């Protein structure tokens, strides 16, 4: 940071990356938890991801409108309040014991996260000199990686509470079985109540916090353009596509990890949850730290190409290997995909000028890939009765990211601004 006035705001913005990373990384715990509690298929359980990431598609443009009209600070506060409301909705969802209510609560949380991410990603990128924007965003996203480490380790202990074994459940009457599973499903109430309270406290802090409002130079001229004008930036269009497939890959890898680990490596859910935290989470965290450090010596787009190639190879191993090798390959994918989201984002909004906020909204909207691609992977797993075959989906996704790193990121002035 070249200006001290940016330091404390950057610290506070970075805390948001941790919070949404934490709640996102509770989803892989919720999937096996709700799958068991409601006797769901893998495809049905994957609707947890669909409920979350469809919100990004629905709310991204409204979030961009909020940012353009009221500024980044207001967007952050609104996002935090909606985030908290969604967390509190887990209490009536657990009380009613209806799967659709859980999906509704997750959708509301994700609406808040959409507004937050639409504000915080470009804000972190713009809080400082342009030449270090990618480094700055990757640094902030490192705390997202820290959350990816802590959330599974905490979630597996407070949410994945198994009151009765499968053998004991099979001997129960249907009503007794439903009562036992309902008791297990209620374990989500306290964690999300605490989470909602913390988010509300952070919202209050932001209300009284003075944040510098960043105004892009071109925006001062008062000229406004629409979505199609923004997409005339070729590198933005590529970034939207790359982010769609990247997020789809990340959600597939993280959300199905516990199911993958129990099938491919033959370990129990609690052990798989620990692997998710200590293995997947730490790999993601250290991948961010090491990747961010490497960007001082290697161009961001070059590192993106290298990491994408490695992940294509690791997906092939995840499909074909078994036991500990399969587990290690997926943990390796977590390491090498760690820099992809912030790198795609920062390269996508580079040199957009007055289109920056709208471009940010479009890239955030593309996160809908996390809603569409996991059900595809779940369907493949159900049809083939082999979740490993489903890794064809993230393999294709990393190929798209590879193409973006090779040529799609290049800034090309396709039209004038008249």
Structure explained in plain terms:
This protein has helices at 7-24, 27-37, 42-45, 47-70, 72-88, 90-96, 99-126, 133-158, 166-170, 174-185, 189-208, 227-230, 234-255, 257-264, 269-294, 300-320, 323-336, 340-348, 356-365, 369-384, 392-408. It has 418 residues and is mainly alpha-helical. Helix 4 packs across helix 7 (99-126), helix 4 (47-70) runs antiparallel to helix 19 (356-365) and helix 13 (234-255) packs across helix 20. The longest helix has 28 residues, at 99-126. The radius of gyration is 21 Å and the shape is globular.
The radius of gyration computed from the alpha-carbon positions, rounded to a whole number of angstroms, is: 21 Å
Helix-strand category: mainly alpha
Report the average pLDDT across residues: 82
Number of strands: 0
Shape: globular
Largest sheet: none
Order of helices and strands: HHHHHHHHHHHHHHHHHHHHH
Indicate the low-confidence ranges by residue numbers.
218-223
